[in-house]
Amino acid sequence: MTEKFYFPLCLRVSAAQAFKSFIEHDRRLLITISQAMLINMKSTIINSVLTVLLVLSFASHAGLYKGLDAEGNVVYSDKPFDNAEIMTPPPISVVDALKIKPKPVAEEETEEKETKYTRFSISSPKNDQTIWNESQLVVTTKLTPALNTTLGHTTWLIMDGKALIKKSQSTSLLIGRADRGTHTIQVQIRDKKGKILKRTKSITVYIKNTVVPRPSPR
Fold first, then answer.
1. For the chain, how many helices (H) and strands (E)?
2. CATH topology classification for 119-208
3. Closest Cα to residue 15, out of 25, 6, 24?
4. 10 — alpha (psi -120 to 50), left (phi > 0) or beta?
5. Where would you tag: which of 29, 59, 130, 189 has the fewest CB atoms within 10 A of its CB?
6. Segment 77-128, tens digit of pLDDT
7. Euclidean distance between the first and final Cα of the chain, in Å?
8. H or E segment at 124?
């Protein structure tokens, strides 16, 4: 059984003519539907929705009538005709749009990466070195990469297990005059919380000072 649309005066017209009549009847509605059709022409779901909207538009604007012609074909018209009955459009099923979660945006790193020191050693004095009468003893180190003071890294000099110099931003550390005897020296790099990031090997030095005898009293 074929279906045909009837318009004013119950003239049987083709689907293209019916659609053209609908364009003239409601231009604003046509623009909205045309835009949707151009965007989603290949979508079966959208095409189905547009069909329902078209039927509802006829019903809401001028009424929609359904009946049979002389040949027994089902016909529709916006005007009443013999043996026609008012067609009540089915309710529209509203389906929520598919929610697509946005892709998470990678957070920019706000903190600088922690510096990894690869080499750290005491270059002066040498291990097992004997130091005579040194009033300005300086411990010099070699560090790769350079000390990152931006992140709050500092150098600490440890002599005989005790922190002699704390929170220095230099890799050359002045001890001054050291007491006579055997001493162990180590230099550490610490972060601003005091955590040790890198340390040198401990060295041993021997401090000797010449003693000038005092003249005996006369």
1. 3, 14
2. Immunoglobulin-like (2.60.40)
3. 6
4. left
5. 130
6. 777 777 777 777 666 667 777 778 777 765 544 455 788 999 999 999 999 9
7. 146
8. strand 119-124
Q: Which residues lie below 8 Å from residue 16, measured CB to CB, with a gap of 6+?
A: none
Q: Are 75 and 3 in contact (CB under 8 A)?
A: yes
Domain boundaries, the chain: 3-86, 119-208
Nearest CA to 168 out of 155, 159, 180 is that of 155
Distance CA 3, CA 73 (A): 6
123-126-131 Cα angle (round to 5): 125
Whether the model pTM is above 0.85: no
DSSP 10: G
Q: Give residue 116's identity as a one-letter amino acid code.
A: K
> CB-based contacts of 9: which residues, under 8 Å, 6+ apart?
79
- DSSP letters, 131-196, are EES-SSEEEEEEEES---GGGT-EEEEEETTEEEEEEES-SEEEEESPPSEEEEEEEEEE-TT--E
Q: Which residue matches tokens 């021997």? A: 206
- Vertex 64: Cα angle to 63 and 65 (nearest 5): 125
pLDDT tens digits for 15-64? 555 556 655 655 666 666 666 666 655 566 665 666 656 655 555 555 67
* DSSP character at residue 111: S
